[in-house]
Design a protein that fits this description.
This protein is mainly α. The protein folds into two domains: about 10-150, Ribonuclease III domain (Ribonuclease iii, N-terminal Endonuclease Domain, Chain A); about 160-235, 2-Layer Sandwich (Double Stranded RNA Binding Domain), CATH 3.30.160. Helices cover about 55% and strands about 10% of the residues. The chain is built from eleven helices and three strands, in the order H-H-H-H-H-H-H-H-H-E-E-E-H-H. Strands 1-2-3 form a three-stranded antiparallel beta sheet. A hairpin with a 6-residue loop joins strand 1 and strand 2 (about 190-195). It is elongated, with a radius of gyration of 24 Å. The termini are far apart.
């Protein structure tokens, strides 16, 4: 027996939003393969929702991190609106059972397809925006993304990028890197790299590749100059 699709009212309770035009929610949940879709699907709403999500998250970040420079805000924004984050929200909303799919897609497990779930998440944001306006969409996004806002999954920046931004902010030339020592056999080399920023003493890093050694050298200099704390070093 086919699994019965739950009532959309249940999803609206989960979302904390009740649609004036429930057909928008239906459209947001409809895959192009669904019976009777007639080529219509969530794709247009996804397009809109992607832009709405970006604007709302950008505003959230602007207020949540008042001291953060533009570069850090951009990295946080990219992390929060990426497919994996949207799919995580879709899973929290338990969207899978509500998706309107073709029989083949349903049988092949597309209700758990992270790409589809991420797309539908954005489509629902677009639908809420059209139905209730910016404030309604903001309430939805804030409720769904606030935990992700404070706990990014991936490092926000690497030490080399951070050091270059810091030097640039001081009006200095970009840092330079040089291999000062290479040891170990060819199949397992170890590199010692020096990093130099104009007006500062060099610092050094060790690694099993030139890039890793450069990153370690940059990290060491950032810590030495009190640009980074140990916490920054851990997360960055």
């Amino acid at each position: 027996m086919a699994r019965r699709t739950p009532e959309p009212e249940q999803l609206q309770e989960t979302l904390g939003y009740r649609f004036e035009r429930p057909e928008l929610l239906t459209e947001a949940l409809t895959h192009v393969s669904a019976p009777g879709a007639g080529g219509q699907s969530y794709q247009r709403l996804e397009f809109l929702g992607d832009r709405v999500l970006g604007l709302i998250v950008a505003e959230m970040l602007y207020h949540a991190f008042p001291q953060a420079p533009e570069g850090e805000l951009s990295r946080r924004l990219a992390e929060l609106v990426r497919r994996e984050s949207c799919a995580e929200v879709a899973i929290a909303w338990d969207l899978g059972p509500y998706l309107k799919l073709g029989a083949g897609e349903a049988q092949s497990g597309e209700r758990r397809n992270l790409t589809i779930l991420a797309d539908v998440c954005e489509a629902i944001i677009g639908a809420v925006f059209l139905d209730g306006g910016y404030d309604a969409a903001t309430a939805l996004v804030e409720g769904a993304f606030k935990e992700l806002l404070q706990a990014p999954r991936r490092p926000l920046r690497d030490p080399k990028s951070a050091l270059q931004e810091w030097a640039q902010g001081k009006g200095l030339p970009p840092p330079t890197y040089a291999v000062v020592e290479q040891t170990g056999p060819d199949h397992a080399p170890k590199f010692r790299v020096a990093v130099k920023v104009k007006g500062l003493e060099s610092d050094f890093g060790l690694g099993t590749s030139k890039r890793a050694a450069e990153q370690e050298a940059a990290r060491s200099l950032l810590l030495r100059e009190d640009v980074w704390t140990q916490e920054d070093s851990t997360h960055g």
